[in-house]
Amino acid sequence: MRRRSVVIAGLAALLLAPELSTAQLPQSKIPRVGILSDADSERASMFGAFREGLRDLGYVEGRNIILEFRLARGNLSLLLQLAAELVALSVDVVVVEGGGATPAVNAVDPSGHVPIVSPVMSDPVQRGRAASLSRPGGNITGFTLMHTELNAKRLELLRTAFPHITAVTALVNPANPTTKLAFEQTEAAARLLGLGSVAIVEAESATALRALRPAVFSGASAVVVIPDGVFYNYRRDVVGLVSAARLPAIYPEREYADDGGLMAHDPAPDPRSRRRGHRMSGRAIGRCSRRR
Prior knowledge:
With 292 residues, this protein is α/β, with parallel strands linked by helices. The protein has two domains: 161 residues, Rossmann fold, CATH 3.40.50; 115 residues, Response regulator (Rossmann fold, 3-Layer(aba) Sandwich), CATH 3.40.50.2300. 37% of the residues lie in helices and 16% in strands. It has eleven helices and eleven strands. The strands form two sheets. A six-stranded mixed beta sheet has the order 1-6-5-4-2-3, sandwiched between helices. It has a five-stranded parallel beta sheet with strand order 8-7-9-10-11. Strand 2, helix 2 and strand 3 form a beta-alpha-beta unit. Helix 2 crosses helix 11, helix 3 crosses helix 4 and helix 5 crosses helix 6. It is elongated, with a radius of gyration of 20 Å. The two termini are 35 Å apart.
């Protein structure tokens, strides 16, 4: 795992502005932060960490900072509409959480006028969101979690634990643009292990996930869950589905195992590190707001 802070000039104007106390700010100047996520609740633990980061700098939701939540609740097709709502509200910055959120904001704000903060993102250079890690440019800042090589490693671990495996099926969210590379790496690992092609079971939303039945894994001797925000937020449904199929499986985050999944290989073995990006994002926004 390689976590680096991506420093981008999108918030430079805020950082260089004269500092004002919140008591001096009229209601119209209270910082307004948009939050775009595929989560199903404003009380999700990741948002708790974000609020902690704000409180570290004296910001309390509803008192001296406004948080505008727009949650897709497991349906990524809603992200474009929700992003448009946030841009229409003229929020000062948008915090994005989950696959597809950043492209949605960029699609409705092609000029890059609205700064974007991503608490955890995969390789922004490979995905065309930054020119480089050292000089990214653009309107995004945040923290990277570089762990794409773990997709192949998960299948290797599963095969080691269950050497009788002959056919693998991957659970994939086709609406998440980040899953393509993850699946390709999983399939390449399967070929190296002599497992041939990897079958695919798709679920593009929480509704589609809950509609699946164990029979979709017919013919498989093991399951690999490809990393995805919808699957993570509804991981108990994922674990229940795979367990009902009575197949060995490996998951991309430790919380799946905490909720009953057989095994997981996680880029952040310390659960606090997953919250760290959200808390630091809260602090970054708090600093910028304090200097408005």
